Records
---
Amino acid sequence: MKRTHLSVVLSTLFAGALLSTSALSFAADEIAEKTVADDYLNLGTELGGDKYDNFFINDRKKIGAQISSFIVPLLAPALTQHAYVLPPNKWRIDFSQRHASIRGEDFFANGKSNLDTFGDFKVDRQLTDVDLFYGFDLNKKYLHGFTVRLNIPYRNVETDGQIHPNGQPFIGLENAGSDAHIGDVGLFLKKKVLDQANSGFGLAVVGAVFLPTGSNEGTFGSNGRISASRPQPPNTTVAQGFDALQRANVENGTWGDGRCFFRNFNIDNRDVCNNNPAFSAPAAGVSSFAPGGANADNAFVGDFPFNNGVFGRFSGDGRLPAILQSGTGSTSYLVGAFLTRQFESNSIIGRGALHGGFSHKFVSESDGIDPGDLTTYFTSFVKPIYKDYLSLDFSLIAFDQEEDSYAGSIPEPEIHQCDASDIGVIGNCSAIGDDAFIFELHERPPFSGGLTVNFAPSIIFSPSPNVRMTASIIKRIKAPDLGPAPGSIFRFGISVGL
């Protein structure tokens, strides 16, 4: 009986020891497992045996860089592009608004302010953009790291004041107008090509298509009709407009062809103008109607004197220039490439990111108007200045605008010095050296084109990783050869991750 009790006690103690050993072993394994996991998250901790150390350390460095390669709120630029992509199945929505005021000194010809033509003219623009981003991965070789972007723009433009065609101060064309429409909706696809973890820098390429959802039919005045201040006409017929004068002369056979109003005396070697010289007026007489001239208070104000009162500078129906329209009227395409080099806190310059790249937008002609292709170049340096909340962004942005083109011809006023061939061909050209005010028919000239360079400082505030706010000022530091370029543009943006 005693022997039996002893056996039971010993058996119980042995079983308890085994259970205790198992429990301790399990607890130790759990602690070790947890320690391993925690250490592994502390990137750079050595794990494994001697022959595995280099592999694990190198692998962890790559993982660390790859984690950092996702879009970092304080390191992504405020205005320009970058090589970051969204993680798979992540959404982001951006809202931004820009405001630009363009005054007479902001219109250029041959790289200089064209105050003679646009000194009394102004344009106000508001540009609003809503962008929706989505990151995805196809989980196949070469098919990783995509971000798709849908851009919905809204464009508002208001024009006011006068322009003086061809810089002639005695003619003032009222150009008040407004237009507000959704612009051309853009669909972008960005693909990460190189990762900084493997290549020392990030590289992404992008392609986009812009649908013709925007309007390219915004007009000056009332459906293109504007008023003009000009020298007092000699009779009621002229006061009604040169169109009426031409029609009357065609009807009574005085000139026979409306083009005879201009300096085309013989058309196709046929004398169809009945030996009537083209319209002109003494230069001194019309110049007195310019502001400050002797007859400035006696200028006649009436409809635009050609094209039945419709201002036909850019098209026969009175449209605004292409650069001020909400859309292009045709499907456009874009390609680009973006680089990013991210710097860690232990680098020489500290934590930050350098971005650079370009894009080219291919734009097609529509309704005889070709806005011209646009190439954009940029570089940005982003530097956090306060923990994970605040960054500064310094960007250089250059726009290389191909000259736009407009089909057809328009009458241009000019002061012409008469030569021997003008005698009897142009009215008021009675002697060589006389100055006469005439209208010449010219092909519609381009309105904008050339390289514009801007410096753009921004501040980036990120109260949380999923929310980012930006404020920027874009300052022009190089004017284009031709066309408008605002001296300053103010921009505000907010981005929210979903």
---
Amino acid sequence: MKYICLFLFVCISIISKAQTLILSENDSTVMTEYNDGNLWAYRNANGFIVGLTAYETKDDYGKYYRIDVFIKNQCDSSVIFMPENVTSQLLTNRGDTSQLVVYTNESFQKKIRKSQNWAMALYGFSSGLSAGSAGYSTSYSTSYSSNGLSYTTVTNHYDANVAIQANMASSYQMQTLSKMMDNDREVKKQGYLKKTTLHPNDGIIGYMNIKRKKGRILTVNVPINGHLYSFDWDVKSKLPKAAK
């Protein structure tokens, strides 16, 4: 479909594995196609086309099932898409069903910031120790007494200028790291599904992350205008990595 050709996401430090769609033989509402090597499934029902593909992803903040979602409103009235209503279940290897956490943009940003705060605190502690000891140095000198015995003198030195330079370097590194973290959050925010009004003939495309657990079948439920569009994905197989 031509709408999928508009879908371009920049993935930074992400490892992906595509999943296998599970379809019922008599389900006539589903159409599938491959786009850029990835299998997409579309449900065309109740005046909407809802498409979805799924991956396993890994980045600096954890492991997830990532879902890319396409929604087109073919009705005569506007509707509001609410990402917080998207749900997911996992059929575990034990045969029971587990509810999975589907991150909204807000909750995922909160998770990233929490991880970054920990990293910043650890880096600041380490950098502070290094900067605090930078101005100090120790020298040793050996002297001999009149009876030929040697003794060593230990002298501690403090160079305020070296300490100042070390603290300035540490502050600059902290500021640089903070800016890098801010940029990383902005990159993750781009394309993440958010609350959106879909007017007649409007379409949106974006992604969401689901907290990953090992299991057999991943079910993703996308509600829109009182209707539920569900997709089942086989996640038990060890599949090759998808092309980046």
